[in-house]
Amino acid sequence: MYLSLIFLPLFGTILSGFGSRWRGNYGAKFIPTIGIALTFFCSLYAFYEVGLCHSPCLIRVSPWRITETTTIYWGFLFDTLTCVRLVVVTSISTLVHLYSTEYIGHDPHLPRFRAYLSFFTFFRLILVTAENLVQRFVGWEGVWLCSYLLINFWFARIQANKSAIKARILNRIGDFGLSIAIFTIYSVFGSVDYSIIFSIAPSIIDVNIPFFSTSINILDFICFFLFIGAVGKSAQVGLHTWLPDAREGPTPVSALIHAATRVTAGVFLICRCSPLLEYAPNIGFYITILGGITAFLAATTGLLQNDLKRVIAYSTCSQLGYMVFAAGLSGYSVSRFHLSNHAFFKALLFLGAGSVIHARADEQDRRKIGGLVKRLPLTYTIIVVGSLALRGFPFLTGFYSKDVILELAYGSFTVEGRFVHTLGVFAAFFTAYYSTRLLAITFLRPANGLRVSYAHAHESPFAIAFPLVLLSFGSLFVGFLSRDRFIGLGTDFWGNALFTLPSKQHFVEAEWLETSVKSIPLFFSFGGIFLATYQYTVGFSGLYMLKETLLGRKLYTFFNRKWLFDKVYNEWIALPLLKGAYTHTYQNLDRGLLELFGPHGLFSELSRQSMDYSKHAIGFSFRNLFIIVWSLTVTLCFFAGWLDILSIIEIGVLMNILVYRFFFRN
Length: 666
What we know:
Layout: H1 2-17, H2 20-52, E1 57-66, E2 71-78, H3 80-103, H4 110-129, H5 133-151, H6 158-189, H7 194-200, E3 208-211, E4 214-217, H8 218-233, H9 242-245, H10 251-260, H11 265-272, H12 274-277, H13 283-301, H14 308-328, H15 332-359, H16 377-391, H17 399-411, H18 415-444, H19 451-455, H20 462-487, H21 507-511, H22 515-518, H23 520-535, H24 540-548, H25 550-560, H26 565-597, H27 599-616, H28 621-640, H29 645-663
Helix pairs in contact: 1-2, 1-4, 2-3, 2-4, 3-4, 3-10, 3-15, 3-20, 4-5, 5-6, 6-8, 8-11, 10-15, 11-15, 13-14, 13-18, 14-15, 14-17, 14-18, 15-16, 15-17, 15-20, 16-18, 16-20, 17-18, 18-23, 26-27, 28-29
C-alpha cells in the first residue's frame, strides 16, 4: 500500500503522456485524476497508521549504490512529518487535477499537461518520503524539472519562456548550496541516511574546520548550505524573484506550486533537518532574520501589484517568511502547522483567481476587471473565505497558526525574536490591506472592462466550483480541528520526526503571554482591513490625489516594481556578466585561444605550411629525398633519445651517402 501511494501518480503520467493517442483527451482527463485520488486515500490510511497509531514505517526497496564504505538505498520513510505532508499534497493535487479537467479541458495539449501535473506530484512524493539526502535530491531536482515544464507549458509565449528560465537559474543557486551540504555531510558523517546523520550530530558540536583564513563550526557550515537550498526553493529574499513570475503558467500549476509542492520543499527540508539545526550554534539567528525580512518585504510588495495572480504569489512569499522564521526560532511544529494550513487557503485563492480569469476570458489585470460581485457570487464568497483565512481572521484556519508564530517570536525573549515579531505584525497589516484591495478592485469597484466581456462572464462549472467549495471548508475548519494535536502544549504527535532542544522550548512562554500582546496582530490586521475599505470606497479620490503627488509616484513605482530587485539583478549583475562572458570567454577564449590551438587552428597552420613547402618543391628527386632523409633522421634520433647534434649530423651524412650510392650511381 505504501509503495502504491508513491507510484500511482507515475502510472498516471505514463498512461496520460505516452498513451494519449490511445486514451484520447477523455482518458487524459480522468485517468490521472483517479490515480491521484487513490493516492489520497492511501495517504489517509498511512496517516491513520503512522500519525494516529504511532507506527512509523521504513521500506528499503533495493540498494542504489554500493561502495566499500557506504551503501545508498532506494528507501521510503513514513513518519508523522511525512504522512501529514502526504495528506496535504495528495488532497490539494486531487482537487487541482479535477479543477484542470475543465479549466484547460479544451487545450489541444491537454495530455501533455496532465502528464506533467502527475509527474510533478510523483516527484513531490519522492522528495517527502526519501530516507536519505541523495534520494531527496532526486525528488528535489524532479520537482524543479516539472515546475520548469509547467511554467513553460504555453511555450509560444515569450513571457512564459522568460519566467521558466528565471525560475531555473535562481533555483540552481539554491541547488548548488544543497549539493555542497550533501557532499560535506557525506565527508563528515560517512553516510547520507537521516538516521545515521541525526544520531552522530550531537558528538560533533564543537568540531571546527578551516575555512579560508579562519575556522568555522562544521554544523554551522552544513546548515548554512542547507539553508541556501531552502532559500532558493522557498523563495526567500535574494532568490525570491522567480516566484511571482511563475504565474505565467496555467492557474492550476500556480496553485500546485504555491500551495502543495515546490515552494514548501525548502521549509520541509528545514523541519526534516531539525536535529542538525538545533546543534548548529549560530545559523538559527540568520534563518530567523532572513525569514522576517522576507515576510515584511513580500507583504509590502504585494500592496500595489495589479496582476491578480501576482498579488497572491507575493502573499505566498510572505507566508513562507513566517514559516522560515518560526523554524529559525526552533518552532518547527508551528512552522509545519502553518505550512499545512497555508496550503488550503492559498490553493483556494489561486483557484478562485483562476475562476475569475476563466470567466473574464483570461484577463488578469485587476484594473480591467471590477464589478464581478453580482456576476460571480460563488467565486466572490470563496475568495472572501480565502482572504480572511490569509489575514488570520479569528477562528479561521490561518488564525490558529499565524498568530501562534508571532506569539512564539515574542515569547522567545531574544533580540531576533522581537525583531521578527515587529516585522511580522507589520506584514499582517499589509497582508490585510492588499487582500482587501484585491476584493475591492476585482469585485466591488465599478466595472472597467468592455461591455461584451461582462456579457459573457458566468459562474464556473461544477469541475471548477466543487474543488473551490471543498477547499473553502478546509480553510474554515482544518486549523481548528488539528491545532491541539499538532501544536498543543505537551502533544507527542510529532514524536522523533521533529527535534527541539529543551533550552529552545518557547511554547510555555508564548502560551502565557498577556492578552494585549496576543491581540496585537489582530488589531493590526483589522486596521489594514478598515484602511483599505475606506480608501477604496469613500476615500478613493483622496487616494488618487496622493498617487499623483511626487512622493506618491515614487512610492508607487518603488513598490509596484518590486523594490527594484529585477532592475538591480538585470543591470548590475546579469548585463555585466553577459558582457564579460562575451568579451573574455567568447572572443578571447572561444574565438581566440581555442581556435588557435584547436582543430581549426591546427588545420589552418598545416594548410599554410603545406603551401609554403609546395613553393620549394621544384621537382628534383635528389632534393626531395634529401629532405625526407633528414626528417626521418631527426625523428628517429628524437624517439631513440639521441639528442646529440653531432650524432644526428653523422647519421644524416651517412644516410645521404647510402642513398646517393643506391639511387644515383652510374
